[in-house]
Design goal:
Layout (H helix, E strand, L loop, with lengths): L1 E7 H8 L2 E3 L5 E5 L9 E5 L5 H5 L5 E4 L10 E4 L3 H12 L14 E2 L4 E2 L4 E2 L4 E2 L4 E2 L4 E2 L4 E2 L4 E2 L4 E4 L4 E3 L4 E3 L5 E4 L4 E2 L4 E3 L5 E4 L4 E2 L4 E2 L4 E2 L4 E2 L4 E2 L4 E2 L4 E2 L4 E2 L4 E2 L4 E2 L4 E2 L8 E3 L4 E2 H24 L1
Parallel strand pairs: 3-4, 4-5, 5-6, 7-10, 8-11, 9-12, 10-13, 11-14, 12-15, 13-18, 14-19, 15-20, 18-21, 19-22, 20-23, 21-24, 22-25, 23-26, 24-27, 25-28, 26-29, 27-30, 28-31, 29-32, 31-33
Antiparallel strand pairs: 1-3, 2-6, 16-17, 33-34
């Protein structure tokens, strides 16, 4: 999430009431999660396991809960609770604004686009030309839809990320400040849910087709011309490259990369990155040929046991 006006380190420290290390006028251009940070961004870290990863990332401002040496060319914000303060900054720079109309006055809708009854179009939504948005679709604030897109009834684009910190007294939610971006020539089936990014965009690439009841988690990036059948569930922060096919009821772990041309057979559970143009099956999923060999061996077990019994 980039700020509309560049900030300074001192200004950010005042907003969250914390100490800082670095030049008071050190530039702060935005804030992002660790996997999408760029120079000028704030990243937060609150666990020793990830200190080095954050300090060595592309982010130039680290919101951290420990006094550490400041890396050269960077700045630190020292907080007793970075998670809380990251939320404070999200709310400050991207506050929730209630809508008072089914189609917001700030929305932009392209030529020849058809909006069916009971569609909600939030603030600053952009919809391209020649689209069809069927009844009861919900497009949350800042969603961007390309040209020639079809979205079927009941789908929700831009719901909050499923991202919580487990505190002793409760689950504490990380506030989502990102959005959803859908490319040209995308079809989205009925009752799909596509969560917005925590600080960046959840992206559906050009020509991709989603069946009914598909869920896409926050900050996932889907490439061009992918196919996903019904009841696929993609976790957050997954990279799905071009021409990937995922069949029904597949579950995908967060933070992995599904390589170009991968095919995942139905009812598989994928917990690791894949190789290009390979096929996977099973739970946990492995290459399909290896899984089918395993299944063939298992099917022979009764015959083997029967032969062994006869030898006794």
């Amino acid at each position: 999430m980039k700020y509309s006006i560049p900030q300074t380190l001192e200004r950010i420290a005042k907003i969250i009431n914390c100490d800082y290390k670095g030049d008071a006028y050190f530039p702060v251009l935005g804030m992002n999660e660790i996997h999408v940070v760029e120079p000028g961004d704030i990243v937060f870290v609150d666990h020793p396991k990830y200190y080095n990863k954050a300090l060595e990332s592309k982010a130039t401002i680290i919101l951290i809960n420990k006094e550490v040496e400041c890396p050269e060319g960077k700045a630190l914000l020292i907080s007793d609770d970075p998670f809380r303060d990251f939320n404070t900054l999200t709310v400050h720079f991207n506050p929730f604004i209630s809508s008072n109309a089914m189609i917001s006055e700030s929305a932009t809708i392209g030529a020849n686009t058809l909006i069916q009854p009971n569609v909600f179009v939030g603030n600053n939504v952009v919809i391209g030309s020649d689209c069809i948005i069927h009844p009861n679709v919900c497009l949350y604030d800042n969603t961007v839809i390309g040209n020639n897109v079809v979205i079927h009834s009941g789908s929700v684009l831009g719901g909050d990320a499923f991202y919580y910190k487990n505190r002793p007294e409760k689950f504490d939610k990380l506030i989502s400040g990102g959005n959803v971006v859908v490319g040209d020539n995308v079809d989205i089936g009925a009752l799909c849910t596509i969560d917005k990014g925590v600080t960046a965009s959840t992206t559906i690439g050009e020509g991709t087709k989603l069946d009914n009841q598909v869920h896409i988690g926050h900050d996932t990036i889907i490439g061009k011309r992918c196919l996903m059948a019904s009841q696929v569930g993609i976790s957050g922060c997954v990279i799905i490259e071009d021409f990937v096919t995922i069949w029904g009821q597949v579950g995908v772990k967060s933070g992995i990369t599904i390589a170009k041309g991968t095919e995942i057979y139905a009812q598989s559970g994928l917990g690791h990155s894949t190789g290009e143009n390979k096929k996977y099956f099973g739970s946990p999923a492995i290459e399909a040929r290896a899984r089918f060999r395993e299944m063939a061996y298992i099917n022979k077990l009764p015959e083997i046991i029967d032969k062994l019994d006869k030898l006794k």
